[in-house]
User: What shape does this take?
Amino acid sequence: MSDLFPLWTHRLPRQLLVGGLLLATSVTAGVWYYFTPKYTRAGYQPLQPVPFSHATHVGQLGMDCRYCHDGVERSAFANLPASATCMNCHNQVLKDDPRLAPVRDNVLTGRPLAWVRVHRLPDYVYFNHAVHARRGVSCDRCHGPIQNTDETAVAEPLSMSFCLDCHRNPAPNLRPAAEVFNVNWRPTSAAQQLADGQRFVREWDVKRLDNCAACHR
Assistant: This one.
């Protein structure tokens, strides 16, 4: 008596079982890797090799963000400064401070500083700092009151819902282009900020960009 089903169907249960196991493993690995404090928890604050204080440099001394993150208006990434940038000041200011020993060593030997990345997006998310900075999105919208922090920490969850809240209604989150890097700027009122934001949306042709392909490319 011949089989009622083609021979290839005999392998189907095994293939389904293997495929299911691979899918379950991939999902588990993805959740295990991405759903960690580095990606999801506001407040994540790793220990760095040099205790850099934004409160001192930005809050007290009034340094512009772009002095250190000089590529933020041109690049997708907000780069860290080279040690030589730090030594522009620290060859005179606190030049023998032991806390700056790794910076001096890097300049002299080229041995890299092991900075720990604080803000991290999953690999499947596309984000461009320059696009946001050139369209009126300030640093503190995502990074919080960075000028008050002694150690850099995650201020916002940077989740998909956090991004979509702004993408779906960008007007309240925009400020004058000249004030994007002014951490002390405040609008005169919420109503005025909304009115200005709506004007910026029109003048700068800011799109809602809440479709999947905007961030998942």
